[in-house]
Amino acid sequence: MNQLASIRIFTKVAECLNFAEAAKQLGISNSVVTRSVAALEEHLGVRLINRTTRRVSLTSTGQSYWACCVELLKQLDTMDECIASAVGQPAGLLRIAASSLFATTDLPDVLAAYRLKEPRMNFELTVFDNMNDVAPSEFDVCFGAERRLRDSSLVCRPLAQTRDVIVASPAYLARCRAPRTPAELASHDVLVASDAPSRYWEFRDAHGTQRVVVRPILNIQSPLVVKRAVQAGLGIARLSQSVVQQELADGSLRALLSDATLCADERTVWLLYSGQPHMARALRSFVDFVVERYRHTPEESKRKDAIGVGPLQHQSGNTELLWNRIL
């Protein structure tokens, strides 16, 4: 028996309290997980896990052993970091949570650029549609795109901003005339992502602020599903510009009501992480890399009409983040 491998497998089962989920996260078969835990129990001469057809739970001995295993694995990670530090390279695994908005726009470029710098780093990514669906403290870092950040005990670093835009497909506009004023939205089919205002949208013009009541025919968590429904011609939606920039560029979606200013349209892209007194070298390296990447904006991209708008410091055209000197 490879005791260290069995300890790692047991620790993952203890975290998940589910053999199949542990196997999935480890990238091994269910049978390997089952055999490893059984071999470890036989080696120790105790039962670590209670198994029934409905649930998995730790025995009292299993709880104590799990705590010891967690500390052991932390020490092993520290030892690995010492070697990595000696050769000048962070190594290990970063557990990252990211909103679907960020995960489908900038994050792949960020990870690719960082791994070119630190090729020994690996990533475990969890994608969410709503910040309420995740506990950021359970990850090494979390990227969220929120209009208003909820209270958090984590360190919250603002990276950039993106704005909402109202869009529809050419097919929908061929069937239903495009709204010429915000008030006309009330007679249109509206699709809403759950993180967007669902009862009314506010607009501002020379005459003041106007509140328009919308009646969604579709309300769903994922902004990516909403985008796909808009492309299919189901209706009009309010989405982050970073999500639809490519579609606006190629004409498969069109921006509406450009003469009216949409209120509360900004979202901030946040980097969240635990402010530990002794942050792991790999995590510190990644945080510093991300913050530095977003700090600098090419001088030629600064335009008076865009509140300091600039692309990211790489050659992708997949986002338009609005820079507002928030670093």
From TrEMBL:
Is Lipoprotein a UniProt keyword of this protein? no
Per the record, a Pfam family? HTH_1
Q: Which PROSITE patterns match?
A: HTH_LYSR
Which InterPro entries did the record assign?
A: LysR-type_TF_proteobact-type, LysR_HTH_N, LysR_subst-bd, WH-like_DNA-bd_sf, WH_DNA-bd_sf
Residue ranges annotated for the HTH lysR-type domain, each copy included: 1-59
Q: Which Gene3D superfamilies match?
A: 3.40.190.290, Winged helix-like DNA-binding domain superfamily/Winged helix DNA-binding domain
Assigned keywords, A-Z: DNA-binding, Transcription, Transcription regulation
Instruction: Tell me yes or no: is rRNA-binding among this UniProt entry's keywords.
Output: no
Family designation: Belongs to the LysR transcriptional regulatory family.
Q: Could you identify this protein by its name? A: HTH-type transcriptional regulator DmlR
Origin organism is Paraburkholderia haematera
